[in-house]
Automatic annotation (TrEMBL):
The lineage of its organism: Bacteria, Pseudomonadati, Verrucomicrobiota, Opitutia, Puniceicoccales. SUPFAM superfamilies: vWA-like. Pfam families: DUF58 (PF01882). It comes from Oceanipulchritudo coccoides. Residues 53-267 form the DUF58 domain. This is DUF58 domain-containing protein. InterPro entries: DUF58 (IPR002881), vWFA_dom_sf (IPR036465).
Amino acid sequence: MPDSSQQSPVDLLDPAYLSSISNYTLMARVAVEGYLSGLHRSRFQGFGSEFVQYRAYTPGEDPRLVDWKAYARRNRLQTKIFQEETNMTCNIVLDASASMDYQGSSASCSKFDYARMVAAALAYLALRQGDQVGLTIYNSTITEAISPTQRSNRLASIFHALSRTKPEKSANHELAIEYVGHHVRGRGLFIFLSDMLDEEDHLPSLLARIRIRHYDTVALQVLDPDELDFPKAEAARFVDLESGQECVTSPKAVADSYNRSMQQSQERLTKAYIDSRVEHTVFSTKSSLGRALSAYLHRRNP
């Protein structure tokens, strides 16, 4: 297992390093603590000012939230809950279709491995902040559905679901979004993780349905470096991961056409998200996980 004590905060957010940690609990903790250690204390030291109740301390939480006087009296670790903590629900929705299984030669992990690292880190951060968190994983069907809660055992369920999922089949985005949308209540945050390929005319309008239900909606698009800049090898065999169709061609011959088409597709997707008032961020699988964690904190504490 890698020695995290020898890593700088920036290194701790590198997907190449994080993907080498097989234990999801440790991976998420390393990512979140590495990220928070680089922030000014005032950004995450407190929440609301109105005290509501206590709950059992969860390992990894900020020890400054522990009521040490209560610990001295009862020999029990308890975390203070404030009003601002009690009204945020985070729903994480993860695409586990076959196209997410792609990993190019310059990437340290597949799109799905990157996306589930982001999902694990966001879930850990959400519970660390006292929020309710749930997870839905889907391809052509709903494969995992964990409802939002603050219970301390929720992370174990989420990490187990993430670790056992294998990307396969096609993606039924509408099924997943409508499934979660049917269950959302009150104020909350909806985080959608997918490669979103060829969905510029479909996905933004689907996610807008969540936004109009008073949920902040964030679309995190995960792409491989090869998809952002087509590799120019001498010859290659291309396989559609969802249909299995194959094509042998010279990448040099199609690179310019592909890059133009990809740029146009991304521009249409970005515009559609702007029109739908859905926040859209693109990640390469070589990107630091810090941007995803920053997006969560920004939405939780604007």
